[in-house]
Design goal:
By secondary structure, the protein is mainly α. The chain has two domains: 12-37, no CATH class; 44-77, no CATH class. The chain is built from five helices and no strands. Helix 4 packs across helix 5 (65-77). The longest helix is centred in the middle third of the chain and has 14 residues, at 44-57. It is rod-shaped and about 55 Å long.
């Protein structure tokens, strides 16, 4: 197992990485993390279909359309 000081120095392997970070340029790893964390854009037809499926699965209850729509939208944005 590496010591804490070893881990700190191991983060930057090449001097050009320091320059990129100081210039505010994102590294490929940073870009990948940001892309994975960002919720995806979903279309209204996608939400409509998911909400309808949830409504049918719930036994077609009345008065839950907004709740099911919001749940469907959140699920799709989070990739569920």
């Amino acid at each position: 197992m590496q010591k804490k000081d070893d881990l700190k120095s191991a983060r930057l392997e090449h001097p050009s990485q320091v320059k990129e970070m100081r210039a505010g340029e994102a590294t490929p790893a940073t870009k990948a993390i940001a892309a994975a964390a960002a919720p995806r854009q979903v279309s209204e037809p996608e939400i409509q279909m998911r909400a309808y499926q949830k409504w049918e699965a719930a036994g077609k209850p009345k008065g839950v359309d907004m709740q099911l729509w919001l749940e469907a939208e959140q699920e799709l944005k989070n990739g569920k």
